[in-house]
């Protein structure tokens, strides 16, 4: 398959690398000049289990490519998605499928606005990746993809994409309610990522505070109310089961989650697509969401005082 990765940071580079290794024609599209230059000069540096290799994968700015692609894999941060869609608009047509696996609520609607005729699939993934500098990623662990075709996707296209992801050992699973999975993950991140960022602590440290348990319940109940109004079957029980499993002593990691790392590096966060999305939808629907609203404002305040 001829595949463009639109947003080739940590995750885009991982997926681009794995898809190229299984024989696909992959191009990494990005907007960070030093990252593109490093990949084209030396190859993408991929470190796995302490072993480093340089892999030749073409990297380019979106404006410099004009080929037809069978698949565009969108992997920006949620707040970068709209800008990327504008920059790849010349590559979008009804023959080019789009798959978006970025975190956050609202990505689907953004893509539909910019690419109404495109075959569209969305999903979520448990793969991880770390971008340690321009042109350099560390890949550890394994994961899977849960995805679903949303619109304009033929049976042949769906099968071809599923087979391509499977051949790349990305472990795809077709879902019949991927929006529930996306909301469940957003709810998990709205607790783990947001709380660790505000409390300046690692995931496992959240278990030390009784206040965290109370706050977690407030966030989850508001998610449940808004999800119900939106027709998403995310219940308090389901959300808490997911969050509590991630907080169990043998699971809660001795690490800072990605939002904490974003703030530490002086970058903006995905808060408007997590707690912030619930606050906005709650306002529109007349559903009170004070906990998610306050958390969103506090994270934005942290962004402003730490932004580089
Ligand atoms: P990322 O920050 O590594 O990359 C996103 C974009 O930001 C890329 O275009 C990248 O080039 C650019 N970027 C990164 N650092 C930059 C810098 N210093 N200067 C200029 N540009 C820079 O994002 P990611 O971790 O790949 O995440 C993409 C999506 O996948 C997000 O929605 C995220 O929540 C989700 N996700 C990430 C992981 C993970 O382990 N990284 C796991 C699951 C889901």
From TrEMBL:
InterPro entries for the chain: 6-PGluconate_DH-like_C_sf, 6PGD_dom2, ApbA, Ketopantoate_reductase, KPA_reductase, KPR_N, NAD(P)-bd_dom_sf
Keyword Oxidoreductase tagged: yes
Domain Ketopantoate reductase N-terminal: 3-151
Pathway(s) served: Cofactor biosynthesis; (R)-pantothenate biosynthesis; (R)-pantoate from 3-methyl-2-oxobutanoate: step 2/2
GO biological process, one term: pantothenate biosynthetic process
EC number from the UniProt entry: 1.1.1.169
Ketopantoate reductase C-terminal domain mapped to chain residues: 177-303
Residues that span the membrane, as ranges: none
Keywords: NADP, Oxidoreductase, Pantothenate biosynthesis
GO CC, any one term: cytoplasm
Superkingdom of origin: Bacteria
Similarity remark: Belongs to the ketopantoate reductase family.
Role: Catalyzes the NADPH-dependent reduction of ketopantoate into pantoic acid.
Name used for this protein in its record: 2-dehydropantoate 2-reductase
Species in which this protein is naturally found: Weissella bombi
């Amino acid at each position: 398959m001829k595949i463009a990765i639109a947003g080739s940071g940590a995750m885009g580079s991982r997926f681009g690398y794995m898809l190229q290794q299984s024989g696909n024609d992959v191009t990494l599209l990005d907007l960070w000049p030093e990252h593109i230059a490093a990949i084209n000069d030396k190859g993408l540096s991929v470190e796995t289990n302490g072993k480093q290799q340089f892999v030749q994968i073409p990297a380019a700015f979106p404006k410099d490519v004009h080929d037809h692609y069978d698949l565009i894999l969108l992997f920006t941060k949620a707040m970068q998605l709209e800008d990327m869609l504008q920059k790849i608009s010349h590559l979008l047509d009804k023959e080019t499928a789009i798959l978006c696996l970025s975190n956050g609520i609202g990505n689907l609607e953004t893509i539909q606005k910019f690419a109404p005729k495109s075959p569209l699939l969305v999903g979520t993934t448990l793969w991880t990746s770390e971008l340690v500098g321009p042109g350099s990623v560390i890949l550890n662990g394994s994961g899977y993809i849960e995805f679903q075709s949303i619109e304009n996707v033929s049976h042949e296209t769906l099968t071809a994409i599923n087979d391509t992801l499977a051949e790349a050992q990305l472990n795809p699973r077709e879902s019949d309610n991927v929006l529930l999975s996306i909301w469940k993950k957003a709810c998990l991140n709205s607790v783990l990522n947001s709380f660790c960022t505000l409390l300046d602590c690692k995931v496992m440290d959240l278990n030390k505070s009784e206040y965290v348990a109370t706050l977690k319940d407030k966030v989850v109940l508001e998610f449940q109310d808004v999800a119900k109004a939106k027709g998403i079957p995310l219940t308090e029980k389901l959300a808490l089961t997911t969050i509590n499993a991630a907080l169990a002593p043998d699971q809660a990691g001795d690490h800072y989650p990605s939002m904490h790392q974003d703030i530490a590096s002086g970058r903006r966060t995905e808060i408007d697509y997590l707690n912030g999305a619930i606050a906005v939808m709650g306002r529109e629907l007349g559903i009170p969401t004070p906990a998610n609203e306050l958390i969103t404002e506090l994270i934005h305040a942290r962004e402003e005082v730490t932004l580089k």
